[in-house]
């Protein structure tokens, strides 16, 4: 009887920890954003400056991997792989006074390569 109680206690204690571990260590889902599809190559056709102040000039190209959105700050992050294989992020803020106009017309700024 005591052995069953110990197993039950351990299962109740460890199960939430295992669930959290699996959630934190899972591979991110590959998700499209507007016309950007994971695994496809794109190039910049209309230069823009991202949230971090980095300019993305016409001709820049990369492979789109996935995106994430942070509702609190209207933050959109594009995860990309540059031509040299380096992983990079393009952070944008979806507000009219920031990169909102770029995001709203992203298909004019970034096209399939």
From TrEMBL:
<dbReference type="InterPro" id="IPR022020">
    <property type="entry name" value="DUF3601"/>
</dbReference>
<feature type="domain" description="DUF3601">
    <location>
        <begin position="36"/>
        <end position="104"/>
    </location>
</feature>
<protein>
    <submittedName>
        <fullName>DUF3601 domain-containing protein</fullName>
    </submittedName>
</protein>
<dbReference type="Pfam" id="PF12208">
    <property type="entry name" value="DUF3601"/>
</dbReference>
């Amino acid at each position: 009887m005591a052995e069953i109680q110990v197993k039950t206690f351990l299962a109740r204690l460890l199960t939430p920890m295992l669930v959290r571990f699996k959630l934190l260590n899972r591979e991110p889902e590959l998700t499209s954003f507007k016309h950007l599809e994971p695994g496809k190559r794109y190039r910049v056709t209309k230069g823009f400056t991202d949230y971090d102040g980095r300019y993305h000039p016409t001709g820049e190209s990369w492979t789109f991997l996935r995106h994430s959105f942070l509702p609190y700050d209207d933050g959109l992050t594009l995860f990309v792989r540059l031509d040299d294989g380096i992983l990079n992020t393009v952070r944008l803020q979806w507000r009219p006074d920031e990169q909102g106009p770029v995001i709203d017309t992203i298909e004019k700024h970034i096209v399939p390569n």
